[in-house]
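Weekly modeling sync, notes
Attendees: S.R. (lead), two postdocs, one rotation student

Agenda item 3: backlog of single-chain predictions. S.R. asked that every request posted to the team notebook include the full sequence so nobody has to chase files. The rotation student volunteered to paste the first one in as an example of the format we agreed on. Action items at the bottom.

Example entry:
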Amino acid sequence: MNKALFIVSLQHELAMAVNNEFDLDKLLKHFIKVCFTRLSLSSAHVYLHQNGNGRPIVIDDQTQFQTRHFLSVPKNKEGKAWQDTTILIDFSQKVIQAQNDISFKQTNGSFLYGFDLPNHGIIIFETRVEFEPIIEKALQPIFNKLSSSCYSNIVYNSLLLEMQARKEADKRAMYEAQHDTLTGLFNQRHIKDLLEQAHFQAIEKNHLGCLIFLGLSRFKAINDEMGHSVGDKILMTLAERLNAISSEQLQVARFSGDEFILLLSCLPKHEQKAQHIVDETILNISKTINLPLTCEGSLFKLTCSIGYNFFPQNNMQQKDIIPFANIAMHEAKRSASLKVQRYEKEMSDKIHLKNAYVKEMKQALRNDEFCLYYQPQYNQNKEIIGAEALLRWYHPTRKMVSPEVYIPIAEESSLILDIGLWVLEQACQDLKILEQLGLPASFKKLSINVSPKQLQQANFKDLVLFNVEKNKIQPKHLGLELTENLLVESFDQSIILIEELKKQGIDCSIDDFGTGYSSLSYLRRIPASLLKIDRSFVINIDQQTEGAAIAKMIISLGNALNMDVLAEGVETKEELACLVSLGCYQYQGYLFSRPVPFEDFLALLPFSATAK
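Predicted structure, as returned to the notebook:
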């Protein structure tokens, strides 16, 4: 009777130990603690079926698992981890392989009992007293109950892990949807959402906000010269700097490429106070951008152009805030002096006018409204040595449109490629007529101006050579005029192209020299034959020592590099005399001839009388 009561009491207490604890480690330790008390254990060990990640699992036919040690109480035996003892390793393997309850008497007289935990693993007890068969039998339903609790625990934790994984995945997906993959800043989509919220709050709470649009200067040149990996590292460094000055009031995003947006919210309604905060913020941004940075052993000092726009005001719609700030930024880029511009309505009017000009220029190409004028070039003997082809546009209603108006507009759009191709084709056709009439011995070349976008065309060389071949003209009579700035923007690519054209007999000259990125290191690598002194240095050169000094330097530089030098914009005899005294013997300007239509240019050449 006493034994029966003991069995009932044992089963009841062990069953109570298998509680609703959802931490598997705590569940098993609590159960073992009770077993130690009721069964006089020396040690206890649990081995569970685990997956490749070491997580306990419930086995099924599709599961790949190993039965591994999970815990031992106590952890160590004579200073050594229980799980590493030979006796436990050997015995546990026997229990796992037997898939049944077995026992083993150790040499020290203690006993090891191995029990199966159905679908979960095994449990091993060490005791100094041998279990009676009735005790072993009584433990079976307890281990079945323990297995059920393990199952509930494992399922619960699996669900918990899955929920956490889903939560992390959702969090990661949300982050990726809102952030730029390279810089970690907010992306274009999210900053638009934040702007919508800021615009609504500004209206609701009667305060101002400001959107700041930032564009890096000459970043494309860095990418082209140093490679995109360096460019990406620079962008990441700048992003870290901008992010460091962000706050709850100032949020930063990468808009695209080398353009960033900074959203400044909760500004005072009083515009003068708001302007002061914006000015301070922009100054801080500029200082942050201008700090030198080192990347892969090279030192870079970047600058930027900034446009900004307050909201809400002037009945401006929320969708227009970013485009207007972008317009202001591009105005700042075009400005020679101002690097920060606040948006004004006139800027949009200018854009609309530009769009109208682009549309009309497309029509002009179709309607043959463009023509070429030629300004002859002379030597000191007043012989014509060449001519520069200049584009002219006679509009049906605007009449003769100034190139200073439409050329920059064409340059900003892809339309310059179509116009540039037309100029190339027309100049080659006119050159063919000149060659057929018999060019004078003094005539060197007819030159056309080339835009940056043309030079960056992959097939530009082929287009030039095709038109030369098509018109059967001598390549040496066709020249290309390139500006310093054009060359520096894509220097290595430009050098290769110029060298390839020179091999075919087509030479180039450097236009407006001294007004851009003048550098002897650049110049000596350019295979050009002619330097053109910009007219800004020629005007009143006889009266201005500074202009004369610059012209003298350019002339000396040309002589040192075995290049001819031609002065543009010569309008007076005094200017000509000064240039001659400085050693310049080639000229172009109103003193000799204005740009004239092709027919009038023919009349200036020695063969013109016989040709007619």
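Discussion: group reviewed the output briefly. Residues 608-612 have pLDDT under 50 and may be disordered.
Action items: rotation student to repeat for the remaining queue; S.R. to check formatting next week.
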